[in-house]
# Entry
Amino acid sequence: MGFGRTSQAAGEFLMTDDARTVPTRCTECEAHLDFPMVCTGCRQLYPVPESVDYFTLLGLDRRYDLDEEQLHGVCLGLARYIHPDRFAEAPEEVRRLATRLSAEVNNAVAVLLDPVRRASYLLDLAGGPTAGQERGVPGELLREVLVLREQITEAKERHDEAELERLRATIGSQREENLRRIAPLAEGACAADAGHRRELRLRLNAMKYWDNLLAESTPDPLAPATPKP
Amino acid sequence: MAYSDKIVDHYQNPRNVGALDKNLPNVGTGIVGAPECGDVMKLQIMVDDDDRVVDAKFKTFGCGSAIASSSLATEWLKGKTLDEALQIRNTDIVKELSLPPVKIHCSVLAEDAIRAAIADVQRKKAGGADAVPEPTPQPQKV
# Structure
């Protein structure tokens, strides 16, 4: 097993579009690397730069439409090779590298498994705009949010569970609709023009408002039951 | 993180909560939101013929700092001319309420709301007959 040291020796490299290189062939056993951070043949670890994008890191195509089952499989498979417990006997330097790579893989999987974070990540890779740069939302969403917030407040004051349930259903389906519209925008984000990317940002900004409305309209399980007067 | 007494006071006893009739020609409405936290703020001003703010109301759905920022903003707006109102800066709100750094965006939201409300009433006054009528105007005594 070649985990005795890390390697940055010359070999075959993949040029990513941010002009950083990641290895594609193991310098120890010459096997093809399915993942840039580890050789699944001889367990050699590679110190992949933190700037390498999550798709490259996990050996996935850079697109929105991904197979969640496959991603789970990648995550479990990688853990067998890079989990720090596997390197308990290895030198300090290697254990540290395994810890860093495992943390990066965990971050990558968490972002890519969440459809909203995945879309947002793709938009960042495509050059934004970020929520800080473009703070808008589609159409008259803010007015709609205000009205729904008022209706939720009133329903809560009246302890009108049926109305609250109705509002929650409306909000839930509107949220789903927004997410459905994000999908095609995010799928094409990397090759999209500025107008297309702005549209995606507006839709992503909207998600936070829908999430808040959903949370607001969901009864707090810890709240004490209020006796009717 | 400790909140200042002023934040707590404005949060527990918010001033000028409510709504003005958005269809009146001398009422400006600003609705703004913060995509980072999903807070929404509506701030309205009513001006007299000399462009002086005679009334201000707000409704904010968000954290205590956002509520306190908008509550303070409505207090400051009353009695000011629109030109004076445009001088209100979010940093003034930060200072007055001693907002912690993570809540500075709440004061930015309040400043955005003030500007949006001013722009709305100025548009109405400038537009005159060109102004697009609201679908359901409700006559209301002021």
